Amino acid sequence: MTKKETEPTYEEMIAELREIAKKLDDPNTPIEDAVKLHQRGMELIRKCEMFLQKAELTITEVPQPSDGQ
Questions:
Q1: Could you state, in order of their start, the residue ranges of all structural domains in the chain?
Q2: Which ranges form a coiled coil (predicted)?
Q3: What is the pTM of this model?
Q4: d(Cα 29, Cα 33) in Å, to the nearest integer?
Q5: Taking CA 65 as the corner, what is the angle to CA 63 and CA 69, rounded to the nearest 5 degrees?
Q6: What is the pLDDT of residue 68?
Q7: Contact call for residues 24 and 34 (beta carbons, < 8 A)
Q8: What is the pLDDT of residue 2?
């Protein structure tokens, strides 16, 4: 299996976070489920933050002009 097959995209993680938020807002969600959803949400938030940090580093890395140009 490749990394692409196992790791969700940023957009997929955000979509899952939205679903988690909806379920946490539902007063009928059992407390046990809410705790698990909260834990999963925190895990996704950490992954999203790491993705954004890597993206920021990639974007801010400006290639240095070579002496020949």
A1: 7-59
A2: none
A3: 0.76
A4: 7
A5: 145
A6: 56
A7: yes
A8: 55
